[in-house]
């Protein structure tokens, strides 16, 4: 399935609805999409959100980047991933439990 991210993805309808962008909008008019997260795990590194908005993943359509934002007190740290660096995205959604986004 083609997505507004410009990647070939298989995703559940609920996540697709969160990142949907009207196809009539030109690419330079697309806004970012923010999705709150509870946990970021990269290898042995783990960041657990303790407050709302401590951890957010953002999809930037115009610049074709995925950005993880981690709030550390008053400081904000970012992990920036260009879409060209992504080889796969898996989304596991459960309406009654925590969902999972895996990026390779």
From TrEMBL:
InterPro entries named among the record's database cross-references: TRF2_HOY1_PH
One matching Pfam family: PH_TRF2_HOY1
Tree of life domain: Eukaryota
Species of origin: Ambrosia artemisiifolia
Name of the protein in its database record: TRF2/HOY1 PH-like domain-containing protein
Domain called TRF2/HOY1 PH-like: residue spans: 35-104
């Amino acid at each position: 399935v083609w997505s507004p991210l410009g990647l070939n993805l298989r995703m559940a309808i609920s996540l697709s609805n969160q990142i949907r962008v009207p196809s009539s909008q030109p690419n330079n008019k697309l806004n970012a999409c923010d999705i709150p997260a509870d946990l970021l795990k990269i290898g042995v590194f783990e960041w657990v959100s303790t407050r709302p908005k401590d951890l957010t993943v953002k999809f930037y359509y115009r610049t074709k980047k995925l950005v993880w934002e981690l709030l550390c007190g008053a400081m904000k740290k970012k992990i920036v991933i260009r879409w060209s660096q992504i080889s796969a995205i898996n989304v596991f959604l459960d309406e009654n439990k925590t969902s999972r986004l895996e990026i390779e």
